[in-house]
């Protein structure tokens, strides 16, 4: 059964472009990848919020991007090496490095503490799709708002393609060859593409192989987020450039490539820019 796309398409068509918030809006005591971060994202006019999935050694699902354990939890072990009890015993450090009472949220807790009419981009769940997809089936009230993504690897695509519920999905595309692989999986409920451009010539977004999707009903997501000083996700166009040199140097240029969705860490400022376009 393919999940209906209408909620997503309605959002896509009513905006000049969509704003996706990376891990939700966070700062101070509002921690990334929490229900609180989702609520703040909505206050800052986000259209979609990206969250990350990790799994404990007891096969319970948590909202957490593994690799951030030391920064957020003062823990040197990867969260995937911890039991559910161990994860529940941890408390977050806030943006100042102070330990607070907030703990890592299970998917179930997270679901119970957010509005059920918000688009969620569920990231980094692909390694668990054998068990996570059946778990996701339990949350029918948000079925049309869950949007999965993954790298284009056959081991992931086969699981998604063969699952009884075809969730909304967009692949992380890094080459034209990825598009050719996707064609082998007709059950995928593709709503768009995350375009990774690590070359300044922007070869992928300009590829003619994408032309058949440029009809306004597919999302073309460009990453404006700045992960570090080395990683370029959309050429060298990013949030830092937009904020420090001006939107015409970054966000405007991203949109000129035909991108209709921007992932950012600064949704309120990006929304101000979008309002000026309207």
The Cα radius of gyration reads 18 Å
Alpha-carbon distance between the termini?
Answer: 37 Å
Strand percent estimate: 15-25%
Number of strands: 10
Instruction: Profile the largest sheet.
Output: 8 strands, parallel, barrel
Average of the residue pLDDT scores: 97
Globally, the shape reads globular
Brief descriptors of the model:
278 residues; alpha/beta; eight-stranded parallel β-barrel; 17% strand; globular
Describe this structure in words.
With 278 residues, the chain is an alpha/beta fold. It is built from eleven helices and ten strands. It has helices at residues 6-13, 35-43, 69-73, 84-88, 107-112, 129-136, 154-162, 176-182, 239-245, 251-256, 267-277, and strands spanning 18-22, 48-55, 61-63, 119-123, 146-151, 168-173, 189-190, 192-195, 219-223, 261-264. An eight-stranded parallel β-barrel has the order 1-2-4-5-6-8-9-10. Strand 4, helix 6 (129-136) and strand 5 form a beta-alpha-beta unit. The longest helix is centred in the C-terminal third of the chain and has 11 residues, at 267-277. The chain is globular, with a radius of gyration of 18 Å. The mean pLDDT is 97.
Précis, in short:
With 278 residues, this protein is an alpha/beta fold. It is 29% helix and 17% strand.
Blueprint (SSEs and pairs):
Layout: H1 6-13, E1 18-22, H2 35-43, E2 48-55, E3 61-63, H3 69-73, H4 84-88, H5 107-112, E4 119-123, H6 129-136, E5 146-151, H7 154-162, E6 168-173, H8 176-182, E7 189-190, E8 192-195, E9 219-223, H9 239-245, H10 251-256, E10 261-264, H11 267-277
């Amino acid at each position: 059964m393919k999940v209906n796309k209408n909620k997503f398409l309605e959002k896509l068509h009513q905006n000049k472009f969509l704003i996706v918030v990376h891990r939700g809006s966070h700062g101070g005591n509002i921690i990334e990848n929490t229900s609180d971060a989702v609520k703040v994202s909505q206050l800052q006019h986000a259209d979609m919020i990206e969250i990350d999935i990790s799994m404990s050694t007891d096969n319970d699902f948590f909202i957490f991007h593994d690799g951030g354990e030391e920064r957020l939890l003062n823990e040197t072990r990867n969260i995937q090496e911890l039991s559910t009890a161990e994860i529940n015993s941890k408390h977050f450090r806030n943006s100042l490095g102070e330990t607070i009472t907030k703990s890592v949220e299970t998917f179930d807790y997270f679901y119970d503490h957010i509005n059920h009419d918000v688009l969620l981009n569920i990231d980094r769940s692909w390694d668990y799709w054998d068990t996570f997809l059946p778990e996701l089936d339990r949350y029918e009230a948000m079925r049309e708002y869950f949007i999965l993504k993954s790298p284009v690897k056959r081991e992931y695509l086969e699981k998604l393609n063969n699952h009884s519920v075809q969730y909304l999905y967009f692949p992380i595309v890094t080459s034209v060859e990825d598009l050719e692989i996707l064609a082998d999986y007709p059950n995928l409920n593709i709503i768009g593409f995350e375009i990774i451009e690590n070359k300044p010539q922007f070869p992928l977004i300009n590829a003619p192989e994408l032309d058949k999707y440029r009809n306004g009903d597919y999302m073309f997501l460009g990453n404006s987020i700045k992960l570090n000083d080395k990683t370029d996700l959309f050429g060298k166009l990013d949030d830092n450039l937009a904020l420090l040199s001006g939107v015409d140097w970054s966000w405007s240029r991203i949109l000129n490539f035909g991108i209709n969705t921007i992932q950012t860490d600064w949704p309120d400022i990006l929304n101000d820019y979008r309002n000026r376009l309207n």
